[in-house]
Amino acid sequence: MGIGIAMAVMATTGLARAQITTDPTRPAIGFAVEVPEGAAAGNQLQSVMISPTQSAAIINGVRVKLGEKYGDAVLVRVAESEVVLKSGSAQQVLKIHPDVEKRESGKARP
Q1: Most CB atoms closer than 10 Å: which of 27, 33, 47, 95?
Q2: What is the C-alpha separation between 85 and 66, in angstroms, rounded?
Q3: What kind and span of H or E run contains 94?
């Protein structure tokens, strides 16, 4: 009987380890993300990746490298907190935090 208990403990330990390796930031299955009122629907910049050899962005869950097409637009610029998509003569600037206004510290806001 002692062997049976030891095997049960080892099996549950393995399951616990498997659960730890899952992404804790991943939404639960069936979880719907709602767009807040007043927020622009459409393209959402989620992340940027900048290295000496390559720049890319995650837009609506899709990895797009600098110069690649996303829909009918091309990713033409990747910066620390924003990217630029260009389609014909139109440009769309996507910001990681569109509701955050960056300003210099120590300056009062009027």
Answers
A1: 95
A2: 10
A3: strand 90-95
Task: Name the token pair of 15.
Answer: 């399951």
pLDDT string in tens for the chain (110-residue length): 567 666 666 655 555 555 555 666 665 565 544 444 444 458 899 999 999 999 999 999 999 999 999 999 999 999 999 999 999 999 999 998 877 776 777 666 66
Q: How many CB atoms lie within 10 A of CB 7?
A: 10
Question: Which has the closest alpha carbon to 46: 87, 98, 102?
Answer: 98
Q: Are 63 and 54 in contact (CB under 8 A)?
A: no
Q: What is the pTM of this model?
A: 0.56
